[in-house]
Amino acid sequence: MDQARSTISKIFNGEPHSYTRFNLTQNMEGDNSQVEMKLSSDMDEETGGNGVGEHLNHNSNRKPYVAQKLGRTPKNLCFMAVATLLIFIIGYLIGYLVHRKKDLAPTCAASTVIFDNVADFETGAAPLMNWNKVKELLAEQVSADKFDSVFREFSSDNHRAGSLSDEVLGQNVVKRFREYGMNTWTDEHFVKVQDPPASGSNSFSYKGKQERPTGFLSYSANGTITDAILYAFYGEEKDLRLLKGHNVNMTGRVMLVRTGRISFAEKVANAAKMGASAVLIYPDPSKSSIGGSTQLYGHVHLGSGDPYTPGFPSFNHTQFPPVQSSGLPQILAQTITLDMANSILRQLGGANAPEEWGSPNKLGDDSDAITLGVNNVLSEKKIVNVFGVIKGFVDADRYVVIGAQRDAWGPGFAASTVGTSVLVELARSISDMVKNGGFKPRRSIVFASWSAGEYGSVGATEWLEGYLSSLSMKAFSYINLDGVVTGQKYLKVAASPLLHSLVQSTLKEVNSPNKAGSLFSEFAKDDMESNVLEPLKLDNAAYPFLAFSGIPSVSFRFTSDNSDYLYFGTMLDTREKLDVATGDKVPQLAEAATRVAGHMVLRLVHDHLLRMDVEQYNKIILNRVGQINKKVNSVLRLQPQLLPKTLTMQWLRSAYGSYSRASSQLAADIQNSNMEDIEMCRTLNDRIMTVERNFLSPYVSPRESPFRHILLGSGPHTLQALYGHLEALGMDHPEADADLFRSQFALATWTIQGCANSLAGDVWSLDNEI
C-alpha cells in the first residue's frame, strides 16, 4: 500500500508539465466505481532534450490531434504505456478500497454468535456509542458504597399496599426521578384486597386446643368448617397423585402442607381439585431457622392482579359488572406457625406417610377432626404506581420497562427495599450517562415502582390491563427487580427464551462480586441452561408481562439455595437477616444486580436490532410437538376408540415447520440488511416483537384464562395441557373429553401457524411453504 500511495502521489504531483483530474462516483448500490481521468502532457507541448519542455502559447498554431498522433516519437509511446499502466493500477486500488469498505459495513445481527460481534455504526439519527464505552460509563456510575444511604431512604417497618408508608415511599421515588431530570407520572387504581378480620386473627381448634394465628392468606374463602386433617407433604400434584395411588380419600379433608416448591395459590388449587375443604400451610421444617412462632403472610389467588376485575383495569369498580376471577379459591386457606403444625403432626393417627416423602409423619384419619374459621375482610384500597422515563433518540415510542415492587407485608427488606434501591440507582446512573456522558439511547427506558405486589403483582397487572392495546406494540421487554438479592451461592434467571442469548452475553460481561472472573464463569460453568436458568413461575412479577401481555420478560436473583427466600412473607425480612444470608455482602450483591440489569437494559436500547433470538423457540416447540405426537400415536395404537381415525399430527408438525422456516428466514433477512436504513431496522424489530405476542392464544378469554401464552402460560389452551388431556384420555379419566381435545388441538395448531405467518413478514411475502 505504501508503494501504491507513492505511485498515486507521483501522479498527483508528477512531472511539471502534466496534470491529472479525477472524478470518482459511486452508484446507489455501491457496487461499481467509475474513475474518469484526463492526462495532459507533452502531447500538447514541445519538449527539450532533457525532457523539460517549454510552455507554448496555447493560442498559437497547434497541430491537429491526428497530426500529433501521427507524429509521436518512441519516447512518447513509452510514456503513454506507463501512464496507461498507472491508470489501471489506480482504478484497481480505488475499486478495492470501495468494495472493502462495503464488506466491512456492519449488518444487523441474527443470533447469539453474530450478536457478540456487532460493529459500532452511526446512522446519523443518533450517534452510536462504542459498546465498551457504554460499559465504562455504567461502571463509573455504579458503586456498592452508594447503596447504604439508598437502602435507608427506602426502608420502612410497615408499608403494606395502600398504606400511608407505601404512599410516602412512592413520593420518594418520584422525587428521585425528578432530581435526575426524568419525566414522571403516576397511575392510580382502586383494588379489592383481603385483610385480616377486625379481631386481628383467624382461628382453629384441634384436640380441644384453640389457636389464633395472626398470619393470613388474602383471597381465601370465608367460613367455618370441621373436617379431618390429611397430611399432604408439599401439596404438589405429584404428592396428591401419590396419595390417590395409595387409595387415600381426600374429599372433604383439611390438607396440612408445608411451604416451598410451588406457590400458596397452587397448593390450594391442587387441594381443591381433589375435593379438599380447606388447606393449612406451615413453614417448611427443613428451614428450621425461621423459628417456631414465625407467622406467614401471602395470598391464594391463582392469577395476578385484582381478582374482582379480571381482564380489565380497576380504575373505577362502578363501571364494570360484578365478576370474579376464576383463580379465586372456593375453599378455606390459612397459615399456621411451625410450632402449631408440629403439635398437630405429633397427634395424627392413621397410616404412615409414603416412603417417597422421607417423612416420619402419619397421614391422619377420620378421628383427627379440626375446626377452622376464616373471616378475612374484603376492602377497597387506592394504590399508586410511579413511573419515570428516559426517552430514546431514534425510536422513542419503543421502550423497555424495568420495575420493582414497593410494598411489603412487614419490613420487606429483601422483598422490596433492595429492588427499589436498585431501580432508583439504575435510573440515576443511566440519566447521568445521557446528560453528562454523551450516551444516546435509541429507544426509551421506563422505570416503574409498583404497589400491591404482595397481593399478587396487582399494581403491575392492573397497569398492563389498562394499557394493553398500546403496550403490546411498544413495550418490547420487561426486567423484574423483585427479590434480586437473597443470598450469594447461586445466580438464577427466569426469562423468555427470546432473551436467553442476551442473558448469556450479559453474564459474560459482568464481573462476579464473590471472586475474580465473570458471573458466567462462576455460576453458569459453561452450562447456563442447567446451572442458571429456571422456569418463570406464576408468582413472579414478570410472569403476567410474558404470559398475559406477550412482552418478553426476565427476572433474576442471587440466592442461597434453589428455593424462595426463607423470610419472604414474614416480619423477619430485615437487613440483619439478609446480611446473614449474604455474608454481609448486601451492597456488593446489589451493585452486581444493578450491573446485570443495567447491561441488559442498555443493550436493548443501544443496538440497532433488539437482542432477541427468535430461533430459541424452535427447540421448545419441537419438544412439545414431539411429546404430543408420541402420546397420540400411543392412544391410537392401544385405545383407538378414544380418538377418531381421521386425527392426524400432520398440521401441527407443519405449523412447527412453518415457524422454523420463518425464524430462519428472519435471520437471513437480518444478515442481508444494512443498519444505515433506519426504517428497515425498525421493520425487522417489529417482526421480532410480534413473536411473543402471537404466542398468546386469540381463542380464549383473558377473563377465564388470562395467561394465554400457549407455550409458557397456563390453562387448557397450552400445549402442555394438550399433553395432559391425552394422558387423561389414556387413563379413561371421567373428565376427559375427546371433542374438547380436538378443538384445543386445532386452535393451538393455528396459533403456532399464525405466529409463523406474522414472523415471515408481509402477506405478499408468504408462500405455500410458510
TrEMBL record:
One of its GO terms (cellular component) is external side of plasma membrane. Residues 648-759 form the Transferrin receptor-like dimerisation domain. Stearoylated. Residues 240-292 form the PA domain. It is found in: Cell membrane; Melanosome. The keyword Glycoprotein applies. It is a single-pass type II membrane protein. Gene3D superfamilies: 3.50.30.30, Transferrin receptor-like, dimerisation domain, Zn peptidases. CDD domains: M28_TfR. Residues 385-586 form the Peptidase M28 domain. GO terms for molecular function: transferrin receptor activity. InterPro entries: PA_dom_sf, PA_domain, Peptidase_M28, Peptidase_M28B, TFR-like_dimer_dom, TFR-like_dimer_dom_sf. The chain crosses the membrane at residues 77-98. Keywords: Cell membrane, Endocytosis, Glycoprotein, Lipoprotein, Membrane, Palmitate, Receptor, Transmembrane, Transmembrane helix. One of its GO terms (biological process) is intracellular iron ion homeostasis. Cellular uptake of iron occurs via receptor-mediated endocytosis of ligand-occupied transferrin receptor into specialized endosomes. Endosomal acidification leads to iron release. The apotransferrin-receptor complex is then recycled to the cell surface with a return to neutral pH and the concomitant loss of affinity of apotransferrin for its receptor. Transferrin receptor is necessary for development of erythrocytes and the nervous system. Acts as a lipid sensor that regulates mitochondrial fusion by regulating activation of the JNK pathway. Belongs to the peptidase M28 family. M28B subfamily. Homodimer; disulfide-linked. This is Transferrin receptor protein 1. It comes from Dissostichus eleginoides.
